[in-house]
Design a protein that fits this description.
70 residues; mainly beta; two-stranded antiparallel sheet
């Protein structure tokens, strides 16, 4: 994980989870994220598996990367 990545990102590929760089996420990927301590990133609905609805994009104002999810 490089300095700008906070979370570990894994995509589901053929029934297994493969670790990738955040910027490698693509529209349609099923993915999950983990905090540096190994805990799952969970949204307000208790989901921990997400589907990308966009390509990653950088927000200059906030100074961080985002991705839209379904």
């Amino acid at each position: 994980m490089d300095q700008e990545e906070i979370h570990t990102i894994e995509i589901e590929k053929d029934g297994t989870w493969e670790r990738i760089h955040y910027k490698s996420l693509a529209n349609g990927h099923k993915f999950r994220m983990f905090y540096p301590d190994g805990n799952k990133f969970i949204d307000s609905d208790s989901n921990h598996i997400f589907q990308a609805a966009s390509e990653p994009f950088y927000d200059d104002e906030l100074g961080t990367w985002f991705i839209s999810i379904k």
